[in-house]
Automatic annotation (TrEMBL):
GO molecular function, one term: ATP binding
Organism whose genome encodes this protein: Streptomyces catenulae
Keyword Nucleotide-binding: yes
Keywords, in A-Z order: Antibiotic resistance, ATP-binding, Nucleotide-binding, Transport
Name of the protein: ATP-binding cassette domain-containing protein
UniProt lineage: Bacteria, Bacillati, Actinomycetota, Actinomycetes, Kitasatosporales
Amino acid sequence: MIEVAGVEKVFSVRRKAGRLRRVREEVRAVSGLDFTVARGEMVGYIGPNGAGKSTTIKMLTGILVPSAGRLRVAGIDPFARSGTGGAAGGRLRLARRIGVVFGQRTTLWWDLPLKDSYELVRRMYRVPDATYRANLERCVELLDLAPLLDVPVRQLSLGQRMRGDIAAALLHDPEVLYLDEPTIGLDVVSKAKVRSFLREVNAERGTTVLLTTHDLTDIEQLCHRVMVIDHGRLVYDGDLTGLLAAGEGERMLVVDLDRELPPIDGVPGARTVKVAGPRQWLAFPAEASAAPLVAAVAERYPLVDLSIREPDIEDVIARLYAGGTATPVAGA
Ligand SMILES: Nc1ncnc2c1ncn2[C@@H]1O[C@H](COP(=O)(O)OP(=O)(O)OP(=O)(O)O)[C@@H](O)[C@H]1O
């Protein structure tokens, strides 16, 4: 569904060099990018700030023209010079097949009630009546939009607006959905709602999803596959377990005992890294299961409560490079 081969994007920027002088510099945002995504896959696309994620998505939507390489989405080359309509024709045809949600911006009309924005989307994409009604009904139900339909977009909370944006991106039945930070700034309840909706859309419709996020839980709950980009290059392509192992990521088992005790020891596969009163922190490899650790602690210690802290995705990626343990993908 998505094919990217040898794609590069170089920006030419002017930089101050002294009081009056300006020099032209090249910023290589994406370099030698190669990957494919099959129909129905849900893939996480992650990397540190400035890595090239948004630039990739903008090229895949036809907003930015690559400096080199080839890309096709749903069989369409958005920049093909031949065929009906030339390059603009490719972009237009592609627009009908994809949906895009940028978490930091809205595609809805600020002063209009949500339902009027949807009506405009219907007309812009010329969505057939029956399809529009069925899709809207489904989104309204699954994303709890009924009480919001008459509210102007500017009065919606961030979580409400995000749900509204996701619905807008799906009304024309896109085959590919790009989501750029869809859960950023949302509370726990809204995040859960958005994630379960996306899972359902992917499972029921077979919609292909490419998701950029800084939230590891998004990846864990939604994506079997994750691609990591750093300095414009793909440096990992595989499952999350493999990524955490490559980054030597650790998870933390936080246990509350019924009283203050010396550091827990003798639990295979875990080491106690912190003690504060009756609470203790045990680090263990991110790819390992927590169940045997919990059982081992519960057997020997007066356990009252426990929780598991996931490693921060930025830390995992930072470690991935610092340790040079990344498993390079073919061609990276
Ligand atoms: N229009 C532009 N002109 C010049 N440089 C740009 C432009 N857009 C992006 N860049 C540069 O390209 C690089 C990649 O940026 P991009 O926005 O793709 O990163 P990102 O991975 O999406 O980062 P973030 O997580 O911060 O959103 C950065 O160095 C950025 O400064």
